[in-house]
Write a structure and sequence with these properties.
Elements (H helix, E strand, L loop, with lengths): L4 E2 L3 H30 L5 H31 L2 E4 L3 E6 L5 E6 L3 E7 L2 H5 L2 E8 L2 E9 H21 L1
Antiparallel strand pairs: 1-2, 2-3, 3-4, 5-6, 6-7
Length: 161
Amino acid sequence: MNKVEKLPADIKKIWRLNAYFDFFILFVVSAAFYIWKVLAPKNMQPVLFRISLIILAIAIVIFIIELALVQYRWNFWTFYIDERQVELHHGYFFRKQIVIPIARVQNVTLKQGPILRLKDLHKVIVVTAAGSDEISGLKTSQANDLKELIMKLAKEARNDL
């Protein structure tokens, strides 16, 4: 896999679904403050009403930003694997490049929650002694191949040391 890879386009649907879920959670919190306003003493009602409106406004802004950034995130999220390293790149304005030396890889884990399962996607977690990094949203076959490749390269790199 000596070329730069992008995440599958299906991850965009997952990110959009995540934006809807985040909005729903904040909407429920806003509604809870609004309901609490009805049950609260008269002097607290205006304060609770304002809090519910502020939370709702924040929810709407976050929702719009998350939806607007889905295409941006997908365009600039890439990874590259060769016999020496795993490189993860994301962001354009705020660029982040993570380089994981293959010889430092201790474990590779596949993780799949219910939302990723909807599109048959996996999260590949590369673990080193310093921490872990992930490639989220790979198709099952690609994730399995990637896991096998990284572990094979890591084993070979440790044998060379």
